[in-house]
Amino acid sequence: xxxxxxxxxxxxxxxxxxxxxxxxxxxTFNDWDPTIRPLKRGKDDVFKTWMNLPTGTYExxxxxxxxxxxxxSCDRTSPSPFGGHNSVLEV
Length: 91
Hints:
- It is a single chain.
- This protein has one domain: Immunoglobulins (Immunoglobulin-like).
- It has no helices and eight strands.
- The protein is globular, with a radius of gyration of 14 Å.
- Helices cover 0% and strands 49% of the residues.
- The strands form two sheets. Strands 2, 5, 6, 7 and 8 form a five-stranded antiparallel β-sheet that branches. Strands 1-4-3 form a three-stranded antiparallel β-sheet, with no helix packed on it.
């Protein structure tokens, strides 16, 4: 019996958010649940996290103190059904 392997790659997320109390990332990789992946505050108010994701295309947004934002450093977007745009990540 052949063992199936899923190729995963590291995806890095970061957002500069001066004055923010909490930054999370939500997307198609976690059923749009922002509570699953909070980012950690680093130097100069840069919030960061990473995760290993199966290769593919994902849509995501940052949630900063409860408000949804697209990733300003991402140049690929897709219209969101709730208004605005989702950021698009290719892993």
